[in-house]
Amino acid sequence: MKKIVPFLCALFLFGLSGLRAGDFEPVYALVNCRVVTVSGPVLENGTIIIRDGLIAEVGPADKVAIPEDADVIDAEGLTAYPGLIDSHSRVFLETPREEADSPDASGPETARRGFHPGAQAFKDLKVKASDRDNLHRAGFTTVLVVPGRGIFSGQSVLLNVNGESEEAMVLRNPAALHVNFVTERGVYPSSLMGTMAALRQAFLDVDHYVAFRAAWTASPRRFRRPPYSMFLEALEPYVVGKKPVVFTCENQEDIKRAMRLADEFQLNVFLSGANEAWRVVDLLKTTRPPLFVALSFKPPATSLYAVQGDEFKKKAEREIYPANAALLHEAGIPFALTSYGLSGPAEFVKNVKTAIQSGLPREEAIKSLTLVPARFLGLENVLGSLEKGKIANVILTEGEIFEDGTEVRTVFADGRRFEVEKAPPAAGGTPGAPALTGAWEGKIQSAMGDLEIRLELVQEGGSVSGSVKSEMGTWIIIEGTLSGNLLAFTLQAVIMGQSMDLPFEGRVAGDSIEGSFSTSRGTMDVRLTKSPGC
Amino acid sequence: MKKHTVSAAALLILGTALSVKAQSGDLLIKNGTVLTVTRGVMERADVLIRNGVIRAIGPEVPAPPGIRTVDVSGKYVIPGIIDSHTHIALAGTNEGTEVNAAEVDMADVINAEDPSIFTALSGGVTMVHTMHGSANPIGGQNVVLKLKWGKPSEQMLVPEAFRTLKFALGENPKQSGRAGAGPPRYPQSRMGVNAVIRRELMRARAYMEEWDRYLAKKRSPKSPPDSAPPRRDLRLEALADLLRGKMLARVHAYRADETLEFIGLSREFGFKIACFEHIPEAFKITKELKAAGVGTSVFLDMWAYKIEAAEGIAHSAAVSVKDGLLVSLNSDSGERIRRLFNDAGKALKYGGLTENEALKLITINPAVQLGVDRIVGSLEPGKHGDVAVFNEHPLSAYARCDLTVIEGEIYFDRESYLRDRGEEAAGKRPGDDKGGAR
């Protein structure tokens, strides 16, 4: 017993001073490196001093003194960039299963499945070292983690990927409210026009709630107190306080819808997704919302390029949509690039290269992952470039970033050093985990009859992407994860022109998958076997 | 930078569609037989369109220098066809989860990339009233579009048109509980449909009165400064707009009895009905419809496809016209929409309408129903240059649309479409840069 007392004392003292193990980072001096500051000129032979989580000094080798206490890192042949920022990520989130409806859940006033503006991504964080390593390997040190699906999907959290506990990673929480143009199944709103109406009603209700509450506060004895609403309280900072509201835009019409709502309710609107932004350049030029552009090149289901058959759709995916960023740049519209809709950091890096090949200058690509998102997020003074006093998010690469063969060697996040290991072999995340990549065939069983389906899955570590083909068309898989033998994804189904999300959960056993899609009317069982041909 | 050229045989179906080049809205259509609909027939006449508006119609109209000219000798020129009731160019049809969804607005979900637009153009259609479906007694707000294929959705809207609200009676709204479609939802019967509409209208009236009281109180100098306004309810606000006469009802109806009951509702609450939709039993109640000042929008010869359509007859449209009703033909479909002129032709056979009476069913009559007859629906100087050119008389069984023009711009040209399609298929010419067309 006695031995434990000094330990507790120490713990107590540490607690008081707020110190934790991570705070004892050495001082680093990165010498002999090429420094791409982003905000200023490139330094061919530069020195960066990192102390106490910040960039203490950065400059040409002959102008920066190496402190005595510094751990000197010879970065000969390496290039330093600011850590990259992904402004729309699903990393560190377990795909949350949505709760089943209660049978009486209908009517615009009652709580609905997709209406949870108060949900916080922060509360669902499950930080895994493998996810962190994947981010670092792609050069990311900062991520905006956006909560799951739904019309009001909740509030995002901005994290610095520094290897600390969830709380110590937080740069800002909550960062923004996220809205998706999706529909409910079987309950209101089950259509896109219903979703628009429900959004309008929600924003109006906030104004009324606030006015009513103010009137009651001013003269509480004149009338009965207004009923408390958690839903409206959660929306209030965004509708009244004008904090950022991020609309995920799957096509050009979504962008127009978001800007219409921004105009009607004077919201501080950000757009995410927006891979058809190039089609509404004039609107974006006049309204200038912050743009988080997804590097997904898949034509949306509504697009003229998708309704003319697979051949043309694939052509558009190869030749038209990759130029989105380049066309925005030509039009002088600032944007940040994100990994929304992609399987993970590896695919993101591949797609940045494709965007560059399609005409986006490399230095603009870099800005759109550093200084521009930092500015959009209101953190330009602490993030996004290599400048004295900014947070020490620095990556060291061998070769120019976004060149073939270039690898990130070392990452500093909040001044903490990570040596980046080479990527594990593509197939399978954890050893012994099932390999999903390939074609799977089987049936969905529903009350309306069976539907034959064929899945094309691509697995990269713990993330799964792909598509589902049936006589009803080809649908895209999003947010796919494999943990252990548990496979979960959301299928973006398009049925009679309406898009809806069908969550899937199942178990993988060798060459078979058994699981179910959940809908508001219950579940539909699925059995799949791996197609031997692939 | 790389040019993003999309050649592709895959563009086949939409070939000419998107190669709409920058146009000025100036066009001279020469030497056609012009069926003006409101001002008779002119042989070997020209139609001059400047800045999208018809300037002159007649023989030997002098051509302004440099104007784009199309010679249509031997062909027939008619006003662009108007479909009074369809569901194309939308990203959604029904918000059917609630008995009343008056707050939803189809203007929010215009899909300018729906290939049905091009299909419609190939049948001479230039304007549509594209509507909420009939899943619930009170549906949503509809929208009137010009089919400017290749243009952004906002440029298709027709601001001059009436605001309309969809209602639905009979089998569709009452069959909400049928097997497989989820839990049963009130109403399950025709009397239930009527009752639920009355209930919602009463709520809307109370809502309207609450706001009127609040606004009156606010204006009075004695009002306390801290009185908060009532909650705005978009659903009831839409119905209140109907009660205030700012919006008109368009009512999906099949049987005579429920139709008359609905007219009763409109008298009770004092709102206006623009039109009953489909209404195969219209011929039974033409006097009552005339007395109520309500027109119809119907299929010409389609009936008995469900129980409540059993008593339809092909003569209904003609009988209604002769009894003085304002009748239009509608497609209700993205396919039938391209042959509305065939349907109009059938009105000569079934009921013996004159050629001009039959043409009115797809031109000026729907224009009046939609409140746009001052700008479209006939060929007259001052109206929009919305024109369809047919190889034969459009009511002939051999007729085919060759050219469709909206505001002086060509949106469908059969000849160049077929040529492009053939050449693209044969690989003789690269496709246009459809990607950056606009």
Task: Describe the protein's architecture and organization.
The complex is a heterodimer of chains A (534) and B (438). Helices cover 24% and strands 33% of the residues of chain A. Chain A has 12 helices and 26 strands. In chain A, strand 16 and strand 17 (407-413) form a beta hairpin. In chain A, helix 2 packs parallel to helix 10. The model of chain A is unreliable at 1-22, 96-111 and 427-432 (pLDDT under 50). Chain B has 438 residues and is an alpha/beta fold. Chain B has a domain at 81-376: Metal-dependent hydrolases (TIM Barrel). In chain B, the strands form 3 sheets. In chain B, strands 1, 2, 3, 4, 5, 15, 16 and 17 form an 8-stranded mixed beta sheet that branches.
Defining traits:
heterodimer; A: 534 residues; alpha+beta; Urease, subunit C, domain 1; TIM Barrel; Lipocalin; 3 domains; eight-stranded mixed sheet; eight-stranded antiparallel beta barrel; 12 helices; 26 strands; 24% helix; disordered N terminus; B: 438 residues; alpha/beta; six-stranded mixed sheet; 21% strand; disordered C terminus
Produce a short descriptive summary.
The complex is a heterodimer of chains A (534) and B (438). Chain A has 534 residues and is an alpha+beta fold.
Mean pLDDT of chain A: 87
- Report the major sheet of chain B: 8 strands, mixed
CATH architecture of the domain at 81-376 in chain B: Alpha-Beta Barrel
H-E string of chain B: HEEEEEEHEEEEHHHEHEHEHEHHHEEEH
The quaternary state of the protein chains shown equals heterodimer
Distance between the termini of chain B: 19 Å
Low-confidence stretches of chain B: 1-21, 431-438
Uncertain parts of chain A: 1-22, 96-111, 427-432
What's the pLDDT, averaged over the residues of chain B?
Answer: 90
Structurally, the number of domains of chain A stands at 3
Q: What is the tally of beta strands of chain A?
A: 26
Q: Largest chain interface and its two residue counts?
A: A-B, 58 and 54 residues
**What overall geometry of chain A do the principal axes of the alpha carbons give?**
globular
- The portion of residues forming beta strands of chain A comes to 25-35%
CATH top level label of the domain at 81-376 in chain B: Alpha Beta
End-to-end Cα distance of chain A, whole Å, is: 63 Å
Round the Cα radius of gyration of chain A to an integer and report it: 25 Å
